[in-house]
Fold each of these.
Amino acid sequence: MEQSIIFFDIDGTLVDEKKNVQPSTRAAIEELKRQGHIVAIATGRPQFMFRELREDLGIDTYVSYSGQYVVLNGQVIYTNPIDKRSLEQMTDIALKHNHPVILIDDEEMKATVPDDEFVAQGFGLLLNYVSLAAPDPLFYQKGFVYQASLFCSEEDQRLYDEIFPALSFIRWSPISADVLPAGGSKLEGIRKITEKLGIPPERQYAFGDALNDMEMLSGIPNSVAMGNGLPEIQAVAKWVTKTNEDDGIAHGLKLAGLL
């Protein structure tokens, strides 16, 4: 069997609602490795927020920050930080409108405001991870920010869409949107890996469930949407599997002919 590469989103895909990896998923990943395939991650999470998961599953190739920080076999091969001038202008406007912002570099994240309930709610529900320490609205000046999260309504987001064509705003909850460089996506990050490895499209696979998976699932021919995924995500995928709570990864790999 020729070597393929399989990219898995994390939240809503690789892990269940309690952020655990199902036994069937573990077994499937081990079988893929045994067959000689490459198992990789493609996530919106910062790389420091899934270090334990990578170590647990033995995965050292991944696309993080929705494509802005790419690692192949444990080595960083591509980064795409957000323009500092755009971040400065965006955070200034957000502060004036009482819209909290999370700024994320390669090691930590900082909020622009202290103890905001929407920030705690958003990150607590999605990642079970709320550790922002003291607020620092000028955090972007100290290094490279690869992703930000803007906390506002979808209606309020339109203001930012109009003002910042160099930025891309992707909703991940009713109260928040990821902020990326325009054109940045998981698909672009994946291409950095597949081009370097010389793996053709017909041997590329991807699993996802949310809006930040749209480009990935529509751009990779062998795409699998989770049964719990959004309808628009299921519409662009080649296959729709069971949910992340019902052995969806293992079932999807069978649909794709990899198991």
Amino acid sequence: MTGPDYLDADRLSAPGGQPVLVVDAATWRRRDVPIQAVVIGVDSDASLAAIATDDFDLLLTTAREAPRPWVSLDADNFGARVERLANAVRTNQQAATIAAAVLRTTANLPLVDALTVESLAYSALLGGCEFARWREAAERRPPFPTQAEPLLVERCGDHLTLTLNDPTNRNAMTATMRDALYEALANALDDPSQPDLLLQGAGKCFSTGGELAEFGTALDLAEAHLVRTLHSCARALDALGDRGTVRLHGACVGSGIEVAAAAHRRVATPSSWFHLPEIRMGLIPGAGGTATISRAIGRHRTMWMLLSGARLGAAQALKWGLVHEIESPK
């Protein structure tokens, strides 16, 4: 298969009824055709042929320990696992195809611009039918009681330690916590002494991501976009450069890894694991993940995390570059 024609473009999309293409990576070419479908390239014989990687949104192979951008899958159930990923696209077609488009569009943009594109797409999906469906089916629970101090700030000389401080709620990133974190990061950026900064989480995990009770509560999605980009913790953490370090442990879910991935130094404990659940919610990452995680591991592997919903362990995260170091057990 050499790739689609312009007349194919309308049908190769969520509105056109074919939101995903599973193709032989060695023979398929995208050509200069504006298709919206998620293109999954497969390498079932582990040949790892030379290909134009930009033609694909996800690349899967049976070769073990395949280099970036490939994702290695077990040969015994390769076909079934590929089909599960394709079905993830079919189940949430708008979210999946928009995620792929955002990852493609922002791959070579400066981080600040990539964050803006992500936020615009995220706000669009908040108003979409797939997120409404997830929200209708999701278990309703009242907001968890907010900690009086959701972020602890400690200074010792020229070193700042910021601690997400809501362990009973697994450091879920509420709007209050996000705003406190942004303010602390902004203060560090404005500080003429240029302190080093460590971001960590209290309790059993770093963060399980956004507080679910707050999802979908914004009434003005345009204003929500403006606030999201104005108070971007990922942008501020990236701006710290080599002065910023995160220490990750336990669950790092959604925004709990999206923000952290912006740090120029990422250290994890052996118990750490990483998960992006947004596609199954009819969304894409909204705290910076399409920009920060893709810059760490590449857009193809980021797409795999989004579609598979799999937990990435600390050892694999180190191999892929999501973290730079795994602490030795104490």
